[in-house]
């Protein structure tokens, strides 16, 4: 694993989690 991949994965994960959270909130409402 390269540092760039790790950083990208970390950013991507945070973004994905944020999107999922927003999606769940919209679905729950």
Structure, explained:
- The protein contains one helix and no strands.
- It is mostly helical.
- 90% of the residues lie in helices and 0% in strands.
Topology:
Blueprint: H1 3-28
Gist of the model:
The chain is mainly α. It is 90% helix and 0% strand.
Instruction: Provide the residue-averaged pLDDT.
Output: 82
- How does the major sheet shape up? none
Distinct helical segment count:
1
DSSP, total strands: 0
Proportion in helices: over 70%
Classify the beta-strand content into a percent band.
Answer: under 5%
The H-and-E topology, N to C, reads as H
Tertiary shape:
rod-shaped
Question: Which structural class is indicated by helix and strand composition?
Answer: mainly alpha
Give the uncertain stretches in residue-range form. Answer: none
Keyphrases for this structure?
29 residues, mainly alpha, 0% strand, rod-shaped
